[in-house]
Structure formats: C-alpha cells, structure tokens
C-alpha cells in the first residue's frame, strides 16, 4: 500500500493487453543491477577479511592471533570488536536507511531513490578502496549500507511495476539473480586479487564495488519512472503515455484505470498499519513476514558472507577457502535460474488472493 497503489487491485486474474517489450526488458535489466551492489558486498567482505595484508594493516591483533598455533576454537582468531564493526556497520546502516527509503521512494519516485542509493554507494566504494585507517573503512561501509538500503527497497518495487503481470515473478527474481551474480563475481575477484603481490589486492576487491554502483547510477539517469509512481504523484497523462510505451500498445485503458483506482484506494486509507492488520490481509502479512524471516534463520546469508573465513577456520588453506566460496556462489546462482524458469508457472507467495479495500 505504501508503494503508491501497486498490488491493491487484484491484477493476478486480469488479462491486460500488451507484451514484453525490449524497452521493459532493458529497463528491468538496468534496474536489477541494483542487486549487484548488495551481492557484491555479501561476497567481498568475507574474502577481504581473510587476506593477510588487509588484516595486518587494519586489524593487527586478528592477524597476530591467526598466525599463532592455538588449541582453542579457531573462530577465536577473528574475535575482534573493530573487525565486527567493519563487517556489521553496512547492515546496520542498511536497516536504518530502509526505514526512510520507503517514504522517499513514494514521494520522489523509484528512479530518484535508485539514483540516490547508487551515488551514496559509489562514495562508499571509493572510501573503502582508498582507506588508510579503520575509520575510513567504517564510514565507507556505512555509505555502502545506505546505498544497499535504498536499492533493496526501490529496485524490486520498480521491477514489479514495470513488468507485465504475467511475467512479474520472473522479472522480479532478476533482482535476486543479480545478487547471486554479484556474490559469485566478488568471490572470483577475491580469488585473483589475493594473488596480487605487494599486498594491495584487497584495495582492488573493495574498490571494484564502484563498478555495479556506476552501472546503477548511469542506468538510473536514463530509466523512466513507473506508471504507478507517476499516478501516485498526480501525473496521470505521463503515466498513461508511459504505460503505452512499456506495454507496446495503445490499448492500456483497463490497466490504467486499475492503477488509478488502486492509487485512490491507497490515498483513502487513513491508517495503513491498522488496515494492514485487518483479517483479510493476514495471509499476505504472514507470508511477507515469515518468508524473509525464515530465509534469514536458515543462516545462508551468514554462510555466503563469511564463506572464506568459515572455510579457513575449519582448516582450509587461504586459496582453498576462496575456491570453496566460489563453488558456493556458483551453486547459488544456478539455483536462481531454476526459480526464474518456474516461478510464474508454479506460483509463489503472490498467488494468495488479494481483495481491494471496501
């Protein structure tokens, strides 16, 4: 409901005219690159914190522990408050940023939110790549987290609103695909940069986060805003014109009327939170809460984030741990392709019936 009306009207059973146009495909491809910045961050940090030159320069106490022969738990080698702050500051910043990103995305549009997130992420990548002390690392990570918070909030919404209803699941999962590609790319980059002589390979790993950020920033400049967002901000004529363009047909009256009705229904809701708690919305609320919660509780994000460190602490060598992380990332990416191929055929959580507010 906070997204400007998308999803209030049950479009699952609508047969809107139109097709998947090249324009929509390219727009969604560029927008989904926002997933690259999140995936790259998940994969890059664990590899960098397993590199001796990085630890020696910024976390010498951890480096000293790692070189000691100890009989205690191997995880104790990485027991460091500054190192924990380095790794966790991104996610804390992303959590805080996401609380404001929804409002900005609604008021200013999905495009503006993605552009702002990309710019802040780019600043964070530069700070990390040229870091000379722990403070620069942490400030850079905070900027990265803000960028991730904005992109994770705006990109899936953008993809859902641009995609034709019958292909919405497939195109929305392209965001997840980009995350897995980012993870795999970062694992591969860590593997090769760890071999750079001179001990500056970690700078390449952290600095290359600027590449997906530039793709997102550059793409956001040229991306159009979604019809849903335009309608929510009172730009009906532009919304109708954009709908014609992305659907490849002039026969968009039915879909446009639904967008307007959804937007008006959303604006008429005085207290969105109390409305959300109504019995008719409980299935959607339960799934929206349980799916991400249970996904986090599986621990897979921890595994993907700390993969090289985890493999190293159980006895793998430096190179072997990085190779193992690459294999994990590859399997993750392949599994996502299976989801893309099946989600719209077999269904997902969106198959729950949705009733328009009365």
CATH superfamily: MFS general substrate transporter like domains
CATH secondary-structure class: Mainly Alpha
Supply Rg. 22 Å
The count of helical stretches stands at 17
- Tally of separate domains: 1
Output the CATH topology: Growth Hormone, Chain: A
Low-confidence stretches at least 5 residues in length (pLDDT < 50)?
A: 1-13, 349-358
Structure characterization notes:
The chain has 358 residues and is mainly alpha-helical. It has one domain (11-268, 299-351): Growth Hormone, Chain: A. It contains 17 helices and no strands. Helix 1 (22-32) packs antiparallel against helix 10 (210-222), helix 6 packs antiparallel against helix 9 (201-207) and helix 16 packs antiparallel against helix 17 (318-346). The longest helix has 29 residues, at 134-162. The radius of gyration is 22 Å and the shape is elongated. The chain starts with 21 loop residues before the first helix and ends in a 12-residue tail after the last helix. The model is unreliable at 1-13 and 349-358 (pLDDT under 50). It is a multi-pass membrane protein. One of its GO terms (molecular function) is symporter activity. Residues 27-358 form the Major facilitator superfamily (MFS) profile domain. Keywords: Membrane, Sugar transport, Symport, Transmembrane, Transmembrane helix, Transport.
